[in-house]
Amino acid sequence: MTELGAEACSKALKSAGITMNEVEALFCSHSFGGRVVGQRILRFLGTRGIPVINLENACAGGSSAINMAWAAVASGQYQTVIALGVEQMSRGLIPPNADNYEAALGLTLPAKYAMRAKRHMKLYGTTEKQLALVAVKNTENGSLNPYAKNQIPLTLEQVLAARMIAEPLTLYQCTGNADGAAAVVITSKRRGNNQVRIRASVLGSGRYTSIKDEGLSADDELARRVGKLAYELAGVGPEDIDLAEVHDAFTIGEILAYENLGFCPVGEGGRFVEEGQSKRNGRLAVNASGGLIARGHPLGATGVAQACEVFWQLTKQAGERQVERARVGLTHTAGGATPNIGSGACVVSIFSI
Amino acid sequence: MTELGAEACSKALKSAGITMNEVEALFCSHSFGGRVVGQRILRFLGTRGIPVINLENACAGGSSAINMAWAAVASGQYQTVIALGVEQMSRGLIPPNADNYEAALGLTLPAKYAMRAKRHMKLYGTTEKQLALVAVKNTENGSLNPYAKNQIPLTLEQVLAARMIAEPLTLYQCTGNADGAAAVVITSKRRGNNQVRIRASVLGSGRYTSIKDEGLSADDELARRVGKLAYELAGVGPEDIDLAEVHDAFTIGEILAYENLGFCPVGEGGRFVEEGQSKRNGRLAVNASGGLIARGHPLGATGVAQACEVFWQLTKQAGERQVERARVGLTHTAGGATPNIGSGACVVSIFSI
């Protein structure tokens, strides 16, 4: 795992054209790496004694690292830092939190998202086909991404015919465990054109209500609230977003994100994907990287990987999956959505050239 | 564990005379709590959706939370935040980091500190008695601390006669696992006299060298470097410190801290404790709380507990263990000192009335 993290840092430094000597602090996100993970990774890079913060926010850990790093640079505390996410999930099962009684009784994340999907279908007439089309689109995008874990595009028939995990979500509609790392350099210095601007980054946590009120709802108060703040801070609206990397841990998650982030009206997320509006060449390219479903979901690394994709897209380095009109990009990650705490963490960040 | 954390937050809020409604963010330190620990704790307090950062820096996690919280308030990002540390270690063994080969081969922390002690004895003539006197002093202090895990004062004979853990360190010279939580409110608002000033907080990580160069040395470059920066930032020197809470995970650790933080010249730490200079009524009261040895060492909570003790001492709320002349206090925590990464994290913070 330390090797993975070091590789991501090295590549980010190379892309930014700087050396470790300019880096003043490291914000390292992971959930399962053990103690002082960032320090262990710095060893590979030649530790220089800089401050290291290891942080955890479940699936939103990587984007929380970006949020923290951005705040530290924006406030003038540092000029140049690295936000790193790293996770190795291939070596064992994820242990549930000891006090997550709902999960122990069966209300795991796939079950919860499945119920959200069922609710959405009932309320708005969303179809199984529409859900599956998210996976079709994202695996097609992933097939063009050399960093994706799953590079085989799937047909609608394959997605629908796959093994059922939690009705209506089939295997290919659920992200799987993955190993991975991603890093970005965040700096207040102007360094030429290989750079994008972070217009806003907002972190929020859920308001605990109850399973009945929130856990099984098709609504996501947290994403709406955090997204609204991010738009305000960035001075843009959903209509300005050219591409977005959103939290499609399950296909319904992406459909909910369309709605909660204002890409389409509530209830029309299914139609949005079916009409091809979220395709790479659609109105608003969503998960051009392949998303969590195809690129993979190494928990603490995901949010940083999303930012990498937006960086590549905005700087026209996305190769075959390049989105043509890519001037403003958004990332959205949701984490720790165990029912017994309502929602955990959510980060929305907005970037522009 | 969530209950422990919630209790600490509630008590800190009560002490500060504010409600959760004024708290804008939570910095939550732990090493073994699982995912989204801070959010789970907020549930008990009535979650309001504020940003939560869960962070890990091994034994220095709690003081890293204070460091981050202070930076966030000092930079104007927030006005009022909580820094919380929480750990429950009674429910199982601590799993070693998977890549810590030295520990797997026997170079665990007790062994490492024991070798540092042996080195100190050889270089400077430090005695077993001097080492043991640290535990005598700290258990005496702990016996006056209602929050201490070990409240029984030990005699020199008891400490020396205890079971040998790693020569020359006997059982009572090593901190044990503990459950615990501690919280502080950090605010830029003036709120009367029940408040102390954070004059400085500096976080650093080690410079990897090799076991030969650093791991077994009696020196601690990291603590000296971080301490020096903290003194500069605070505009004070070691001679101004009235009391200090330092990282006595093992008795030799406290002796090294005296020297590395400039309380006494290098090599004279043994004499410093033997002469009673670090007693509560000595020249510079060290670990008036009982330190890690008597108060206990719930990993991620320790750094915050140190700050609580300094707060109580500076505001004359330390009861029977009150240090008379308490105007400037210092905390020092070292974490993640596994040999294969040199040293991990170290935080030194300085507080004054």
What does this structure look like?
- The structure is a homodimer of 353-residue chains.
- The first copy, chain A, is α/β, with parallel strands linked by helices.
- Chain A folds into two domains: 2-91 and 182-187, 3-Layer(aba) Sandwich (Peroxisomal Thiolase, Chain A, domain 1), CATH 3.40.47.10; 102-170 and 193-352, Thiolase/Chalcone synthase (Peroxisomal Thiolase, Chain A, domain 1).
- Chain A is built from 13 helices and eleven strands.
- Chain A has helices at 2-16, 37-45, 61-74, 101-104, 109-124, 128-142, 156-161, 211-215, 221-234, 251-260, 269-274, 291-294, 302-314; strands at 25-29, 52-56, 80-88, 164-166, 169-170, 179-187, 197-205, 243-245, 285-286, 328-335, 345-352.
- A five-stranded mixed sheet of chain A has the order 7-11-10-8-9, sandwiched between helices. A four-stranded mixed sheet of chain A has the order 2-1-3-6, sandwiched between helices.
- In chain A, helix 1 crosses helix 2 (37-45), helix 3 (61-74) crosses helix 13 and helix 6 packs across helix 10 (251-260).
- The longest helix of chain A has 16 residues, at 109-124.
- The mean pLDDT of chain A is 92.
- Chains A and B meet through helix 2, strand 2, helix 3 and strand 7 of A and helix 2, strand 2, helix 3 and strand 7 of B.
